[in-house]
Amino acid sequence: MKKLLSVLMILTLMFSLAACGSSEQSSSEAQPEAEASAPKIGVTIYKFDDNFMSFVRRSIEKSAGDQAELVLNDSQNDQAKQNEQVEMMISKGVKSLAINLVDPQAAATIISKAKEAELPVVFFNKEPSEQDMASYDKAWYVGTTSSESGVIQGELIADSWKANPAWDKNGDGKIQYVLLKGEPGHPDAEARTKYAVETVVEKGIEVEELELQTGMWDSVKGKELMDAWIAKHGDKIEYVIANNDAMALGAINSLKAEGYFEGDKFMPVVGVDAIPDALTQIEAGTLVGSVLNDAANQGKATVDLAINVANGKDVLEGTEWKLDDKKAVRVPYLAITKDNIQVAKDCYAE
């Protein structure tokens, strides 16, 4: 009897130890599953200190939360550097790529690297060519319809001009304008430049271009160009059109130094992006309006798609987004003036 009890105690102890071992193993096995739910995603931004892209980046980080581990890179407006960063991220074992190209024409190079590593890639903000997108079944794009921002800006210009006949300083019925263009060859810069002016003309307003030069999306360059144009044309300038808010803000700084926005001395200026600094100028009456380029939703859509494909899911699973026939999610633009400025402010609310 004693011998039987001893055997039973030994067996009980063995089962207890086995159960403990099983519990520890289950816990250990559960850990990789937890890690797998937060895939590593490689992200590049063409330039961290770009005003608009800084808000897209903030949205990407916020949207990722604990759903993904981001490997985030500043390409410093250098395509060669971005190519190296992509190679580095691939070597670190990322599960998908989210790429804001420095040069849209370099998309083929990035796609080639992604293909070789069998990695899905989500381009955002700077759109690759249709041919490049079609070359890889695991490539998608998040951005806007470039022409839409130009059309909306043109409508904003036309409506404000018609509502303020005193802006026609020489009374000739034409808008004598200067235009600050973004980066040459950039789809947004080309489309905004073309469609803003074309839309004004379609609205029945004659125009005369005094100057059109690139300010490279930059506030300092925008101010420098505006300084030169004021020196050259003075009060002949009747409207300042900028492809983005950064350049518009630079132009406003130049105009303020020449006494504009004081008393009756006014110059209409419009931009695109509706960034917070621009909203402040709209409220102050020194910026006629802007076109909301929804950084929050561009960042969120980019992360949503990148996480899905990193986890091997359908690119749109569980999201509100839709793809067009070019495998692109298009986030709509919206005209912003004093009348609806709160809509833009809400986009930047924490």
List keywords for this structure.
350 residues, alpha/beta, Rossmann fold, six-stranded parallel beta sheet, four-stranded parallel beta sheet, 49% helix
Short description:
It is built from twelve helices and twelve strands.
Question: Can you walk me through this structure?
Answer:
- Strand 1, helix 2 (51-64) and strand 2 (69-74) form a beta-alpha-beta unit.
- By secondary structure, the protein is an alpha/beta fold.
- The protein starts with a helix and ends with a helix.
- The chain is elongated.
- The strands form three sheets. A six-stranded parallel β-sheet has the order 2-1-3-4-5-11, sandwiched between helices. Strands 7-6-8-9 form a four-stranded parallel β-sheet, sandwiched between helices.
- The model is unreliable at 1-35 (pLDDT under 50).
- It has two domains: 40-144 and 294-331, Response regulator (Rossmann fold, 3-Layer(aba) Sandwich), CATH 3.40.50; 147-292, Response regulator (Rossmann fold, 3-Layer(aba) Sandwich).
- It has twelve helices and twelve strands.
Layout of strands and helices, then pairs:
Layout: H1 2-36, E1 40-45, H2 51-64, E2 69-74, H3 79-91, E3 96-99, H4 107-116, E4 121-124, H5 130-134, E5 139-143, H6 146-163, E6 174-181, H7 187-202, E7 206-214, H8 219-233, E8 239-242, H9 245-257, E9 269-270, H10 276-284, E10 290-292, H11 295-310, E11 328-330, E12 334-336, H12 341-347
Parallel strand pairs: 1-2, 1-3, 3-4, 4-5, 5-11, 6-7, 6-8, 8-9
Antiparallel strand pairs: 10-12
Helix pairs in contact: 2-11, 3-4, 6-7, 8-9
